[in-house]
Design a protein that fits this description.
Pfam families: 2OG-FeII_Oxy (PF03171), DIOX_N (PF14226). The chain contains eleven helices and 14 strands. It is of the alpha+beta class and 341 residues long. An eight-stranded mixed beta sheet has the order 1-2-10-7-12-5-4-3. Strands 6-11-8-9 form a four-stranded antiparallel beta sheet, with no helix packed on it. Strands 13-14 form a two-stranded antiparallel sheet. Bound molecules: N-oxalylglycine and nickel (II) ion.
C-alpha cells in the first residue's frame, strides 16, 4: 500500500483500524459553525481606522486566539489558483507525489517534507486522516528550485502566493506588536529574521468521520499561522467548548500561536484547534507558519515585564522547545507546562 493516504483512501469502504481514534479523543457530537469568531475587515488598516482595527485584533486574540481577516490585500484570484494547485498536487498519481517523501531528494535536503498523519510526531497510537506537504519559501530563490515540479504551475503560483501571504503576516504582526505596545523599529527587518514555512494539508473524504480525526487538538508552535480553507473542518476550543470555524470565501484564518503567547506574557492567548473529517468530500487547507529561527531565544518582551507584571513564561531556545514537542507528541498540556514558569 502506498504511504500517502491520498494515494489509496478512495479505494477503502471502511476506516482501517490504525485510524480509529480512542473514544475520549473522537470528534463527539457535531460541532456547529460559530458566528462569534471575529471577522476583521482590514480595508482601512493603513488609514485613520488603524487604531480601531488594532484593538479588534488584540481583543479577538485575547478572547479566541483566532480570528479571520477579509479585504487583506492578497489577490482573490491567486487564492483560488493556490487552492486549486494544492488540490491538484494531492490528486497526482502516487508515483509523482511519493518521490518527495524521500528525504534525500533536493526537496528533502532543503527542509521540504511530504508525509502522512502527523509525520514527525508519528509515535501516536493511531493515525490522523491527512497528508501534508510542507516547505520553506523565503527567500524564494533559495528554495523554489527544490519545490514540486508537478503540477507545472506549482512554482509560479505558490511562489507568488507565499510572497503575498507573508506580507499579510507581516502587517498583522506589526499591528499586534503595536497593540501590545511593543516597539518594533522596522518590521521588515524583524520579519527577515523569522522562519516561515508553507503547508498544504489534505484531508480526503473519510469513510467514518465519527471515529477519525484529521488533526488532533494542538496549539501551533509558531508566532502566528495564516490559513486558507474552503470546506468546513477546523474547530477551535474556547472556554471548554469546540466551535466550528466558518470557511469564508477570500478570508484567512489567523491563529495566535504559542510563541506569541510567551512574548506577550500571556496577554494574547494561543488557540487550541483540531480538524475533523467528513464523508462527502475532501478538504484542503493552505497554511503559512510564521516562527522564529531555531537558534532564536524566546521570552516575554522586557517592556511588558514590571514588578506588578512578573514574567509568566520562561526564556528558552526555540530548537529546545521543538525537541521537547517532538518527544512529547506535541501534547498541548505538556507544551504549556514547558513554557509556563
Ligand atoms: C495546522 C492546522 C488546520 C487545517 O496545520 O497546524 O492546524 O485546517 N491546520 O488544516
Ligand atoms: Ni494548527
Amino acid at each position: 500500500m502506498a504511504s500517502l493516504l491520498s494515494s489509496w483512501s478512495s479505494n477503502v469502504l471502511s476506516l482501517p483500524v490504525d485510524y480509529i481514534v480512542p473514544v475520549e479523543r473522537r470528534p463527539g457530537n457535531p460541532v456547529s459553525i460559530s458566528k462569534d469568531i471575529p471577522v476583521i475587515d482590514l480595508t482601512h488598516a493603513t488609514k485613520n481606522d488603524r487604531v480601531d482595527i488594532v484593538q479588534q485584533l488584540i481583543k479577538a486574540s485575547q478572547d479566541f486566539g483566532l480570528f479571520q481577516v477579509i479585504n487583506h490585500g492578497v489577490s482573490e484570484d491567486l487564492m483560488v489558483d493556490a487552492m486549486n494547485v494544492g488540490k491538484e498536487f494531492f490528486g497526482l498519481p502516487a508515483k509523482d507525489k511519493e518521490r518527495l517523501c524521500d528525504d534525500s531528494t533536493k526537496f528533502g535536503q532543503k527542509g521540504g517534507k511530504l508525509y502522512t498523519s502527523s509525520g514527525q510526531y508519528s509515535r501516536h497510537e493511531f493515525k490522523y486522516w491527512r497528508d501534508t506537504l510542507q516547505h520553506h519559501f523565503h527567500p524564494l530563490e533559495s528554495y523554489i528550485s527544490s519545490w514540486p515540479q508537478k503540477p507545472t504551475k506549482y512554482r509560479d503560483i505558490i511562489g507568488e502566493y507565499t510572497n503575498q501571504v507573508r506580507k499579510l503576516g507581516m502587517r498583522i504582526m506589526d499591528m499586534l506588536y503595536e497593540g501590545l505596545g511593543l516597539e518594533v523599529e522596522d518590521i521588515e527587518k524583524e520579519f527577515d529574521k523569522y522562519d516561515c514555512a508553507f503547508s498544504i494539508n489534505h484531508y480526503p473524504a473519510c469513510p467514518d468521520p465519527g471515529s477519525a480525526l484529521g488533526t488532533g487538538r494542538h496549539c501551533d508552535p509558531t508566532l502566528i499561522t495564516l490559513l486558507q480553507q474552503d470546506v468546513y473542518g477546523l474547530q477551535l476550543l474556547n472556554d471548554g467548548q469546540w466551535l466550528g470555524v466558518e470557511p469564508l470565501p477570500n478570508a484567512f484564518v489567523v491563529n495566535i500561536s504559542l510563541l506569541l503567547e510567551v512574548i506577550s506574557n500571556g496577554k494574547l492567548k494561543s488557540d487550541m484547534h483540531r480538524v475533523v473529517t467528513n464523508s462527502v468530500c475532501s478538504r484542503t487547507s493552505l497554511a503559512i507558519f510564521v516562527s522564529y529561527p531555531s537558534d532564536g531565544i524566546i521570552q516575554p518582551a522586557k517592556s511588558l515585564i514590571s514588578p506588578t507584571n512578573p514574567p509568566l513564561y520562561r526564556a528558552f531556545q526555540y530548537k529546545d522547545f521543538l525537541e521537547f514537542l517532538f518527544a512529547n507528541n506535541a501534547e498541548p498540556e505538556a507544551a504549556m507546562k514547558y513554557l509556563k514558569l
